[in-house]
Design goal:
The structure holds 2 protein chains of 2 kinds.
Chain A (H helix, E strand, L loop, with lengths): L1 H12 L15 E4 L7 E4 L4 H11 L3 E5 L1 E3 L7 H4 L1 E4 L1 E6 L11 H22 L7 E5 L4 E6 L9 H12 L10 E10 L2 E9 L7 H18 L4 H7 L4 H10 L2 H8 L7 H15 L19 E3 L13 E3 L9 H4 L7 E6 L3 E5 L2 E5 L2 E6 H9 L3 E2 L1
Antiparallel strand pairs in A: 1-2, 1-3, 3-11, 4-5, 6-8, 7-8, 7-12, 9-10, 13-16, 13-17, 14-15
Chain B lengths: L2 H6 L4 H10 L3 H6 L4 H17 L10 H21 L2 H19 L4 H10 L9 E3 H7 L14 E2 L2 E3 L2 H22 L6 H4 L1 H18 L13 H11 L6 H13 L4 H8 L7 H11 L13 H6 L10 H5 L3 H12 L1
Antiparallel strand pairs in B: 1-3, 2-3
Helix pairs in contact in B: 4-5, 4-6, 6-9, 7-9, 12-13, 14-15
The chains are: A alpha+beta, B mainly alpha.
Chain lengths: 384, 334
């Protein structure tokens, strides 16, 4: 089966469309070859043609390059390489989304795209990066990579990158400080003057997380109020039925108006609900946790080479324009193989829409286009 | 710049200019009776750093006073560099930085922002600073200072004056410390301040001795590389990020150290504050909060950037928890 995939990959690598990273010769390159268990690392190239030759002659299953650039990218240890700087990389992968196990491939890709939009909003609006500093790539697998190439970020250390990740994922957010007490009036009881305090919500135009939470709360309220499906919508947020009914009951028109004016002096339960759903809505699910997994804070990680093929799908690591994310469909736009028919033996039922065509496969022999055959073989859903 | 401002902030470029304009040699500053007061005040700066953790505000009644104060600063630096104790270098850098902070918060916005610019911090007239400068200078290990809790828009973080001053304190501390590492004072400094240098050196040595706290039954040779590294940092007085302290405290507590023993380890940190540290340790070990926190596993340690990957050994690869490493080492010994 590897032979089939390798042959297919070889046909692509005869005329690949690689986007070479800046500072090409300062990067480390790494490969996993068919049948090889170990990653081949610490490779560097002086000229682009040398890399193209490796792709063409050795046809790697996976191809990576380092987000960092070094004085000696081919030195065997990190210390000897002499780190000079690194791009800022974000990984968005379906694996990190809640409930991803139950999703199909297309559904997963769609869900990750939503996270990608949230990430971009943070990078462009809060961090103020220009669109020309931000590159988006479909990973070839189940997610997207976002590369930030801005002169101010190259030198950031691990600790500082972690702070950026925490910002985007909402980790360490001081939720107690979101609603602040404000004196709205004073009352006189004889001699005594008593301030009347209300909890105030942040204003939608405030910078940073406070404004984002405010906008998300207003959005949630609109969503709940639209139509008469409030209770179901609350239940979508994971609230059980009796609690949802109680909340709906307390959300009188007058109360909602007060919330929109910024006064959230409702029951603590309602406050908690709005805050929690707003934080969930705003935060991006990034890969930050599992051991041995490359993360954004890592200043010497490897990332897939744009234009190379993903060994487990045959899809291309494909650049996506920021303003065409909405329309981007990896199962069309990242497909490189043709549609000559290939005989395969499907091992489990599988449904997918690729290149605009819907396939509904059942176990047994079938004839499918080459692009699907590669995809099925890579994902071990079919044998060739 | 007016000479009184230069006396208040003797580390500024313009203050250095006053010294240069006087056209005196280092030897003259160290020996000429004319500079006796400046030398005394230089020694006073160092003593105050050691004793109170912050240098004082010196009265500058006239221009001569101001000039003497300005001169006392390079003298103090020569003394610190001459003694050559890393603990003292950190302590002194922090003491000068704290003084600057307390003066800065009394200044107006324009003054603070112009000084920030001299520090290389990118700041606007409304006291917004570029986020990379924020990240490089803010003590983000504390929740209050995490970027996520700051007003960030278009790359700029809006700050209050006191907040900017606090960042400048951090910036100055690092800068001074690095300068002290580079500084090569003339050998005669030890002769001029002979008694004081000996006194301070002895004092520092005592501190060094105290630093080698017995760790009871615990055996450092059985610590995993991450904990060894954190412990070394704590013992040499390097500031450890909050999560690092947390990981180390929970680990030491789990292997049987009591609060006082742990506290003694942390007392070497240059900004050590017994009350605060005791509170933190008692909180983490469950004495105050009632929740006894567990030592984080390898995956968290890695996420927090505390795992010295280069130093990982075979035992590391077998286990997924620092305590498992420690127990494994004990077992394999027997």
């Amino acid at each position: 089966m590897n032979d089939f995939l390798k042959k297919a990959f070889q046909s692509y690598y005869l005329k690949p469309e690689i986007s070479f990273p800046e500072r090409f010769s300062r990067r480390e390159y790494a490969f996993i070859f068919w049948g090889g268990r170990q990653m081949v690392r610490h490779v560097s190239f002086k000229r682009r043609e040398e890399l193209l030759t490796v792709l063409r002659r050795r046809v790697p299953m996976h191809t990576y390059y380092s987000s960092a650039y070094y004085e000696k990218p081919d030195a065997p240890t990190m210390n000897e390489k002499h780190w000079m700087g690194a791009d800022l990389i974000f990984d968005l992968d379906a694996d990190h989304l809640p409930g991803a196990e139950k999703m199909g491939y297309e559904e997963m890709l769609f869900a990750v795209k939503k996270e990608l939009q949230k990430l971009l909003s943070f990078l462009l609006d809060d961090f103020g990066f220009g669109e020309k500093n931000v590159e988006i790539y479909f990973s070839g697998g189940r997610g997207y990579h976002c590369h930030v190439k801005h002169p101010e970020v190259f030198q950031l250390g691990s600790q500082e990158r972690r702070e950026i990740v925490d910002y985007i994922t909402g980790r360490g957010l001081d939720a107690k400080d979101i609603f602040r007490e404000k004196v709205v009036e004073t009352k006189r009881y004889g001699e005594k003057v008593v301030p009347i305090k209300r909890l105030e919500m942040p204003k939608p135009d405030e910078p940073g997380w406070r404004g984002r939470i405010s906008r998300a709360i207003i959005e949630t309220i609109k969503e709940i109020r639209e139509g008469d499906k409030g209770i179901e919508k609350l239940m979508d947020y994971g609230i059980n039925k009796s609690r949802a009914e109680k909340i709906m009951e307390s959300l009188s028109d007058e109360r909602i108006k007060r919330i929109e004016e910024g006064l959230l002096d409702q029951s603590p339960e309602i406050r908690r609900f709005f805050l929690k759903s707003a934080i969930d809505e705003v935060a991006v699910s990034l890969s930050t946790g599992k051991p041995d997994e490359p993360v954004t804070a890592d200043i010497k990680r490897l990332i897939r080479l744009p234009g190379s093929l993903h060994g487990k799908t045959g899809l291309r690591v494909q650049a996506v324009e920021i303003n065409s994310i909405e329309e981007f469909n990896p199962l069309d736009d990242a497909v490189v193989f043709g549609d000559e028919k290939v005989k395969v033996k499907v091992t489990k039922p599988f449904k997918i829409k690729m290149k605009g065509e819907s396939f509904n496969l059942t176990p047994g022999e079938a004839e499918v286009p080459e692009y699907l055959a590669v995809f099925l073989a890579g994902r071990k859903i079919a044998k060739i | 710049m007016n000479i009184y401002i230069a006396a208040k902030y003797p580390f500024l470029k313009d203050a250095k200019e006053f010294v240069r304009k006087e056209g005196v040699s280092t030897e003259e500053i160290l020996h000429d009776p004319l500079y006796q007061r400046a030398r005394d005040m230089g020694m006073q700066r160092v003593n105050e750093a050691i004793e109170r953790g912050m240098v004082g505000n010196y009265i500058t009644a006239d221009e001569t006073d101001a000039l003497i104060t300005i001169f006392s600063y390079p003298i103090a630096r020569m003394i610190v560099a001459g003694i050559g104790s890393d603990f003292l270098r950190r302590r002194y850098a922090l003491a000068e930085a704290k003084r600057a902070y307390h003066n800065l918060i009394e200044e107006d916005n324009d003054f603070v922002s112009s000084m920030a610019k001299e520090f290389g911090i990118n700041v606007t007239d409304e006291l917004k600073i570029y986020f990379t400068d924020y990240l490089k200078n803010a003590p983000t290990w504390s929740e209050k200072w995490k970027l996520v809790n700051m007003p960030l828009k278009n790359g700029w973080v809006g700050l209050k004056k006191v907040e900017l001053a606090r960042l400048m304190q951090e910036n100055l501390r690092n800068k001074l410390y690095n300068e002290l590492l580079e500084l090569r004072p003339p050998p005669s400094i030890k002769k001029v301040f002979a008694e004081d240098v000996t006194r301070i050196k002895n004092m520092m040595q005592r501190k060094e001795m105290e630093r080698k706290v017995e760790i009871g039954k615990a055996s450092i040779s059985k610590f995993p590389p991450c904990m060894r590294q954190l412990l070394a940092a704590a013992q040499s007085g390097v500031n450890i990020p909050h999560v690092g302290r947390f990981a180390l405290v929970t680990f030491l507590h789990s292997i049987g150290m009591d609060i006082d023993e742990i506290l003694r380890l942390f007392s070497k940190s240059p900004d050590y504050n017994e009350e605060r540290s005791r509170y933190q340790i008692e909180h983490i070990t469950g004495k105050i909060s009632g929740t006894e926190y567990n030592t984080p596993g390898c995956s968290s340690i890695k996420t927090w950037g505390l795992c010295p990957v280069e130093k990982m050994d075979d035992t590391c690869r077998r286990v997924s928890h620092p305590l498992a490493y420690y127990r494994y080492k004990w077992r394999s010994k027997k």
